[in-house]
Amino acid sequence: MLALLADHRDQARTRLRPEVWDYYEAGSGEEVTLAEAEASWREFRLRPRVLRDVSRVDLTTSLLGAELASPFVVAPMAFHALAHEDAECATIRGTGDAGNLTVISTRASRTIEEIGAAATGPWWFQAYLMRDRGLTEALVQRAAAAGARAVVLTVDTPYVGKKDKVSGTRIAVPDDQYLVNLAQHLVPGAVGRESAEQDPSMTPDSIARLADVGGLPVLVKGVLRGDEARRCVDAGAAGVIVSNHGGRQLDRAVPSAHALPEVLEAVGGAVPVLVDGGIRSGTDALVALATGADAVLVGRPVLWALAAGGAPAVTASLQALTAHLQHVLAVAGATCPADLDPSMVVRARA
């Protein structure tokens, strides 16, 4: 099962240009948070139940009205065209064919409308609050018209994280892809590009505003504290995504695995809580789900699959993760994610 993900990674490293591989794999600063992302899930140990009938395991998951084959969601990531010629259209098709959900990035390399037309399953649209608020609102309205089921507002990027290890490397993203979803809304030149940068003055009021503009539920992504999660929910967030941006924003930010319990306690079941950052197996997902998460997001493994074989490889990657989760769930004595609870996991070391 998991050998497939490793194979996709090896193929991607071979097929991608070195600067593209480095861009996808890089973290911010000294990459401390990046290194801890995967390792933090491995700090937990399982306390399985026994003498349970686990002959049938059901992983179907409902998220804000979307019915999924399993609790895996594809995280928003920029510029899929660097990995495959069919770009996000292949990603969304492959994800839908696996029965899962995709979050499409504002920085996608295909138009929102093209991606929506290629979808074979439910999808959400990731938004940044930009200096030109009207630009963000226009994108959200386009996403709603194209079939998006929700908006994911990324809140951990008032400024883009400094990726020191690739700071001297220029990624050649063609102009027609770099701002493909923004160009029609921008005035020409540097002023137009500046208006498409993230707004560092963002406040919680933006959550309700985006929900009104698009008529869609708004989840907030990039939360690592319980008090901040509660603040988002009180401001109208329909969901919270515990995330440190894959180690690409604030270096030495706490791992998502460590932040998850605090956020869950603060939210208190009021809205769904999802988590990303270093999920590489069904066991990682089991730890997150047992802790209390409603679903997990995966990022880089999907890009590896996309580079390795387009939409079919994306489908195969998600199916492999689903199969692994199904297996470990049964061995742990559970028949569905709802059977899991925090008593089944313990942190092995501080």
Automatic annotation (TrEMBL):
UniProt-annotated binding residues for glyoxylate: Y23, Y128, H245, R248
Q: Provide the binding site for FMN.
A: 76-78, 105, 126, 154, 221, 243, 276-280, 299-300
- What residues make up the catalytic site? H245 (proton acceptor)
Gene Ontology CC: one annotated term: cytoplasm
InterPro entries noted in UniProt: Aldolase_TIM, Alpha-hydoxy_acid_DH_FMN, FMN-dep_DH, FMN_HAD, FMN_hydac_DH_AS
- Which keywords, in A-to-Z order, does the entry hold? Flavoprotein, FMN, Oxidoreductase
Q: Where is the FMN hydroxy acid dehydrogenase domain?
A: 1-350
- Is Metal-binding tagged as a keyword? no
Cofactor(s) the record lists: FMN
UniProt-recorded Gene Ontology molecular function terms: FMN binding; oxidoreductase activity
What is this protein identified as?
Answer: 4-hydroxymandelate oxidase
From the broadest rank down, the organism's phylogenetic lineage runs: Bacteria, Bacillati, Actinomycetota, Actinomycetes, Geodermatophilales
